[in-house]
Design goal:
The complex is a heterotrimer.
Chain A: H1 14-27, H2 40-47, H3 51-63, E1 67-70, E2 74-77, H4 84-105, H5 110-132
Antiparallel strand pairs in A: 1-2
Helix pairs in contact in A: 1-3, 2-3
Chain B: E1 2-13, E2 16-27, E3 31-35, H1 42-49, E4 57-62, H2 71-76, E5 77-80, H3 92-102, H4 108-118, H5 131-144, E6 149-153, H6 161-178, E7 181-186, H7 189-195, E8 198-203, E9 206-212, H8 213-219, E10 220-226, E11 238-244, E12 248-254, E13 265-268, H9 271-283
Parallel strand pairs in B: 3-7, 3-8, 5-6, 6-7
Antiparallel strand pairs in B: 1-2, 1-4, 8-9, 10-12, 10-13, 11-12
Helix pairs in contact in B: 4-5, 5-6
Chain C: H1 2-8, H2 10-40, H3 42-45, H4 51-62, H5 67-100, H6 103-106, H7 113-153, H8 164-167, H9 173-192, H10 195-217, E1 225-230, E2 236-242, E3 248-254, E4 263-266, E5 269-270, H11 292-300, E6 305-311, H12 316-343
Antiparallel strand pairs in C: 1-6, 2-3, 4-6, 5-6
Chain lengths: 133, 297, 347
């Protein structure tokens, strides 16, 4: 069974962290189809977070088609995250390497590259989440 | 139903107003954080909510009833006061018996199981327990009563980090299992960030801001950009706090719509940033739309 | 709530009950022998004018057998019992909870604070009344031969029960004192909110009232009976003279002819015109050598009279019930005061 943790200083909302951890576990095959997720009560009391936060994460995962709730029994993994995403990795990695070369040739140091990447990543990320919500 | 409904609530001691013009509607089913500096009126508000104090002005209703107005109302609300008062000469087991005798809705099995799980010795006198153990016993008494609302006045203030974490874990477990609403006060935001989904900021004996945490974080942003007079911002954007150097302005604004001006870098706020902004606004001499200007070189 | 009241007052209750039990056992152990002594005495056989037989009986008791000690201890114990009740049951009742903050725990269960107070006041108040009543019963039973004799001829350090400071050691008034002291302590504790200062104030007030009652209030409850007697030489006992030779008589002692068991307020000997001081002193009284009889005969010729103000013995129980009523009413008013105060929210 997956065990959650919370990074209080990451600036990422707790429910998003839970979602990411489930998705990450699915990718790494730590979570498989049919596995039961910890109950809301277990996660809330284990991490000392609001149960509504856990509910929100589980609902979002359900919306993304990854888990399904069975009343009275628990929340179970129903979907997978393999396949398409793995196939798309190779060309994306190539594009990224090309972009990084360009950035270095333009004179950016490591920190500037990271700052530029994170800022753009977050800005476009929020926009995407708002589209979802 | 609203868990707590205050209208123009005020409490005066001698010449000092501990709470002024407090109007709040806190919904049920939430874990509400009441945060503010010491002496801001948090304890006063909570004591008014359980009927230990009577208002000087205004009115307050809790779960639709007048506080402490009869056994039915008392049964709805569980309270742990600041410094967790207990009967120091009574044992832990005596406290459970006390709870059973004075509460018709007492869940004896739950109380007993919790005491065992925490590892309290039933024959230990309450006066000899550590701070963390006292808090856990007081919490047990409040939850085993099966209230609809738990009111906790600075429950973790004097606890070490481990005891603090265990207390909050048990509180969240109770919320998940029994569906109680919770109002807890603290002067540390870090305690509240994990557990609260509704926030009330109390400073200078007034309510500065109140609302769902998600909504608050979505409507408040940090704007960083070139030096700008806050009064020049569009009308939908209210500046809560502003700091300026000769070239740069950092503003904390509240707005319902998006910030479209491309000159600003828009950042998310943490809950602590938001609370601090409102608390520093309150500690300024004027309260209103004009931000506190602080020129740094 | 009943369980909680007992649990919180456990130590004091057991302590007081133990003390009372020990003393009661002592009384029970010595009582039957006292009854035997009485039955064997000449006083029991006497039918009229038994004053000297009564004194003899009491003097006999006073010497060596320990009865006088038990009598005194009993009187002291029952006199201080209301003070102890007020101090250790009444004053801490609410004050301790207010001082320690445990009232915040007690008042946030499913029991209103009025009910909390009602059970505490009612249960412990009634218990204190019961304990005081039981002890008074035991003491009154034990001392009944003594009281009976002292009413006729008090002697040997034993006093009649109608006597002001002894009145509160018998009968039903200890019940009233206990209730009053308890309720007063509770109210003081509620006002002062600190246990030790509340105990101090309660001590002062209870003591003040228990002293003021026999000295200042009880005498005025019912108008005493007044009787004036003409004195003969045989009634006179002695006299005090002051001033130079031939000076003034300021006090004459006579056998106060009040009936048995009465509570005598005063019995001044006065001249026919009503003054207690007169002169000149008769010749026969100015020298001691002749013996008192000539002096007394000389005084008898001056037509002295004695005016006795007293409450007759048959009013004893009237006074008992009256005083019980007064103290119970006071206790009820004090208790009502507690309820009134507790309804106001504490700041």
């Amino acid at each position: 069974m997956i065990e959650f943790h919370l990074d209080a200083r990451s600036g990422v909302a707790p429910y998003l962290q839970l979602i990411h951890q489930v998705r990450h576990a699915l990718r790494l095959d730590v979570l498989r189809q049919g596995d039961r997720l910890p109950t809301v009560k277990e996660v809330a009391s284990g991490l000392a977070i609001n149960p509504n936060t856990v509910l929100k994460a589980y609902r979002e995962l359900e919306y993304q088609g990854l888990v399904g709730a069975r009343p009275g029994v628990g929340t179970f993994v129903t979907g997978t995250l393999s396949g398409a995403s793995v196939a798309a990795h190779a060309p994306l990695r190539r594009d990224l390497t090309r972009w990084l070369d360009k950035a270095r040739r333009a004179g950016l140091d490591e920190e500037s590259i990271e700052a530029l990447f994170l800022a753009t990543f977050r800005a476009t990320g929020t926009r995407q989440e708002e589209d979802i919500a | 139903m609203t868990a707590l409904d205050a209208q123009g609530l005020g409490k005066q001691y001698g010449r000092r107003w501990a709470l002024t013009d407090c109007t709040l509607q806190v919904p049920e089913g939430r874990v509400v954080g009441l945060v503010g500096p010491n002496g801001a009126g948090k304890s006063t508000l909570l004591n008014l909510a359980v009927g230990l104090l009577a208002p000087t002005t205004g009115a307050i209703e809790v779960l639709g009833g007048v506080p402490a107005d009869g056994p039915a109302q008392l049964a709805k609300v569980g309270f742990v006061a600041q410094d967790t008062p207990l009967f120091t000469s009574l044992t832990v087991a005596d406290h459970l018996r006390f709870g059973a005798h004075t509460n018709p809705g007492w869940d004896a099995a739950f109380a007993q199981e919790r005491i065992t799980r925490i590892g309290l010795d039933p024959d230990q006198k309450a006066g000899k327990l550590s701070g963390g153990q006292r808090a856990q016993l007081a919490l047990t008494l409040a939850i085993a009563k099966r209230p609809r609302l738990l009111i906790l006045d600075e429950p973790v203030a004097s606890l070490d980090p481990l005891a603090r974490r265990e207390f909050l874990q048990d509180l969240m477990e109770a919320v998940a299992e029994h569906e109680v609403s919770v109002i807890l006060s603290s002067h540390l935001v870090s305690d509240l960030e994990r557990v609260c989904d509704y926030l009330v900021v109390l400073a200078a004996s007034r309510v500065q801001i109140a609302g769902d945490v998600d909504a608050l974080l979505a409507s408040h942003h940090r704007l960083i950009g070139p030096r700008r007079d806050p009064a020049q911002l569009p009308s939908g954007q209210e500046v809560i706090e502003g700091r300026h150097t000769d070239r740069q302005s950092t503003l904390i604004v509240r707005t319902d719509g998006p910030v479209l001006d491309p000159v600003w870098m828009v950042e998310q706020l943490s809950l602590e940033d938001l609370v601090l902004a409102y608390m520093s606004q309150a500690s300024g001499t004027t309260r209103g739309r004009r931000p506190v200007l602080e020129v740094q070189r | 709530m009943i369980w909680l009241t007992w649990r919180q007052a456990r130590i004091q209750t057991l302590a007081i009950a133990a003390l009372i039990a020990v003393f009661a056992i002592l009384l029970l152990a010595t009582g039957p022998h006292l009854v035997t002594l009485y039955r064997d005495s000449s006083f029991a056989a006497c039918h009229s004018n038994c004053a000297s037989e009564a004194s003899n009986f009491l003097n006999q008791l006073a010497t060596g057998s320990g009865y006088h000690l038990i009598y005194l201890l009993g009187a002291l114990f029952i006199t201080f019992l209301p003070v102890v009740i007020g101090l250790f049951w009444g004053a801490p009742l609410i004050a301790r909870e207010l001082e320690s903050g445990s009232y915040k725990l007690a008042w946030n269960q499913s029991v209103t604070r009025e009910r909390w107070l009602a059970v505490k006041l009612g249960l412990l108040g009634l218990t204190s009344m019961a304990l005081a009543g039981l002890f008074s019963l035991a003491l009154s039973w034990w001392a009944s031969p003594i009281d009976y004799a002292a009413a006729v001829g008090a002697s040997g350090g034993f006093q009649e029960r109608f006597f002001p400071l002894d009145f509160g050691t018998r009968g039903v008034v200890p019940i009233g004192y206990a209730a009053f002291a308890f309720a007063l302590g509770a109210l003081i504790g509620l006002l002062v909110r600190r246990t030790v200062p509340a105990m101090a104030v309660t001590l002062l007030l209870v003591a003040a009232v228990l002293i003021a009652m026999p000295l200042g209030i009880r005498p005025h409850l019912i108008t005493p009976v007044r009787h004036t007697f003409k004195l003969t030489a045989a009634d006179l006992n002695g006299l005090d003279i002051s001033g130079p030779a031939g000076g003034q008589i300021i006090q004459i002692y006579a056998n106060a002819p009040a009936p048995a068991g009465a509570w005598v307020y005063s019995s001044p000997v006065t001249t026919a015109s009503g003054s207690t001081v007169f002169g000149p002193v008769p010749q026969a009284c100015q020298s001691v050598g002749n013996g008192p009889q000539a002096c007394f005969s000389a005084l008898a010729r001056i037509h002295l009279k004695e005016t006795v103000s007293y409450q007759p013995a048959d009013r004893y129980w009237t006074f008992q019930w009256l005083e019980l009523g007064i103290f119970l009413t006071a206790a009820v008013l004090l208790a009502w005061g507690c309820f009134w105060l507790i309804r106001r929210r504490l700041s």
